[in-house]
Specification:
It is an enzyme of class 2 (transferase). This is UDP-4-amino-4-deoxy-L-arabinose--oxoglutarate aminotransferase protein. Keywords: Aminotransferase, Pyridoxal phosphate, Transferase. It holds the Pfam family DegT_DnrJ_EryC1. By secondary structure, the chain is of the alpha/beta class. It has two domains: 225 residues, Aspartate Aminotransferase, domain 2 (3-Layer(aba) Sandwich); 117 residues, Alpha-Beta Complex (Aspartate Aminotransferase, domain 1), CATH 3.90.1150.10. It is 39% helix and 15% strand. Strands 1-9-8-5-4-2-3 form a seven-stranded mixed β-sheet, with helices on both faces. A three-stranded antiparallel β-sheet has the order 7-6-11, with no helix packed on it. A three-stranded antiparallel β-sheet has the order 10-12-13. Helix 1 packs antiparallel against helix 8 and helix 3 crosses helix 4. The longest helix has 18 residues. The protein is globular, with a radius of gyration of 21 Å. The two termini are 34 Å apart. The relative contact order is 0.17. The model has no long low-confidence stretch (mean pLDDT 96). Bound molecules: pyridoxal-5'-phosphate (PLP). The site of pyridoxal-5'-phosphate has 15 residues, from helix 3 and helix 4.
Length: 365
């Protein structure tokens, strides 16, 4: 199907290197998870200075991470009210009692103060923090809270590959983090994801969980109940080539983000605290003064050929959660009402940026 927009919201950058490595895998005769996936995991582990287990998407990565950390039905799990649905639906599907926390309106991330208010009064098993659009949360503060209140910290870094907190890559810390390699992400394997952890026991469990509970593929001996979350060597071959290009990809995204911030005068943007030493800009959020102005730009830009999108509907307002919309989450609501997300992708050129800026200009006057 032809894209109706001149400037898409996102676009994967698949080049001749990926095509040629795909061809090699096809010719090798081994297409499912094998040596190439192992090689991809080695490269990712080096990149993140951690131990990485790949899976078939970011949602599976979160499922495996929660199971590896022993989540049980009825356990209390905190998640931000403003996030992609998977952060919420996965613990919910595993039977957790999920508690929503409002986010900070300037960073779009959960802040430690709001989390502390809940963990100090309730027995919370896990807190899932999310690096929204690739902007890291305040990791030191959350790690400290996790020790003080004895909860498992999981980082949903699905959007944050390549981002850095105090000059250290997200995914290289002691706690478990998950990433997504969906087509809109910084690197893609079409669908794909991984879990990174510095805890050897967790890594061992993850290995087992992703492969129907067995320790060794090719054998039919299963020690725990699980499903199939494996990726394929075809996808890992794409991933290996993508990872070689990540520095250039992140530079392009950063250039586009800078271009938006410099030129869009009537908008404000995600606030970047000092502890964020690299934002990988999986998405780019812009905030209008109010909902009316936002809606005007949303419609006009889309009519003008730019695929601008609405932000996530907060979890408390999702149709599936009609019982929750009595609770007030004012910041999530404001973000939803006033923001939009602009096109940003690895191969986006200056002329594409200029087209978006000109389209904004046409509708400002
Ligand atoms: C914050 C967040 N968590 C989880 C996911 C799930 O990843 P996937 O789409 O690869 O299943 C995404 C994907 O977009 C995400 O943005």
């Amino acid at each position: 199907m032809q894209n109706q927009f001149k400037i898409p919201w996102s676009k994967p950058s698949i080049g001749k290197e990926e095509l040629s490595s795909l061809q090699n895998v096809i010719q090798s005769g081994w297409l499912t998870q094998g040596k190439i996936t192992q090689e991809f995991e080695t490269q990712l582990s080096e990149y993140l200075s951690s131990n990485v287990i790949t899976v078939n998407n970011g949602s599976s990565a979160l499922t495996c991470a929660l199971l590896a950390h022993g989540l049980k039905p009825g356990d209390k799990v905190l998640v931000p009210n403003f996030t992609f649905f998977a952060t919420y639906s996965i613990p919910k599907m595993l039977g957790a009692d999920v508690i929503l926390v409002d986010v900070d309106e300037s960073t779009l991330n959960m802040n430690p103060e709001n989390v502390e208010k809940i963990v100090k009064t309730q027995d919370v098993k896990m807190v899932i923090v999310v690096d929204v659009a690739g902007l890291p949360v305040d990791i030191d503060a959350f790690v400290e809270l996790s020790h003080r209140y004895n909860f498992v910290l999981i980082e949903d870094a699905a959007e944050a590959l390549g981002s850095e907190y105090k000059h250290q890559k997200i995914g290289s810390f002691d706690h478990t983090a998950i990433f997504s390699f969906h087509a809109a992400k910084q690197i893609t394997t079409v669908e794909g994801g991984c879990v990174s952890s510095n805890n050897e026991d967790i890594v061992k469990k993850l290995n087992q969980i992703r492969d129907l509970g067995r320790l060794s593929s090719g054998e039919y001996v299963h020690n725990i109940i699980s499903s199939n979350f494996r990726t394929t060597d075809l996808q890992s071959a794409i991933g290996i080539e993508q990872l070689k290009k990540i520095d250039d990809f992140l530079k392009s995204r950063s250039k586009i983000a800078t271009g938006y911030k410099k030129n869009l005068k009537n908008f404000s943007f995600q606030f970047i605290p000092d502890y964020v030493t690299k934002h990988s800009y999986m998405m780019f959020f812009a905030f209008a003064q109010n909902q009316q102005v936002r809606n005007k730009y949303l419609d006009s830009l889309r009519t003008g050929g730019v695929d601008v999108r609405m932000p996530w509907l907060p979890l408390s307002d999702q149709p599936v959660n009609s019982n929750l919309n009595v609770i007030k989450f004012p910041n999530s609501k404001n973000i939803y009402q006033n923001s939009l997300t602009l096109p940003i992708y690895n191969s986006m050129k200056n002329k594409d940026l200029q087209f978006v800026l000109d389209t904004f200009q046409n509708f400002s006057s």
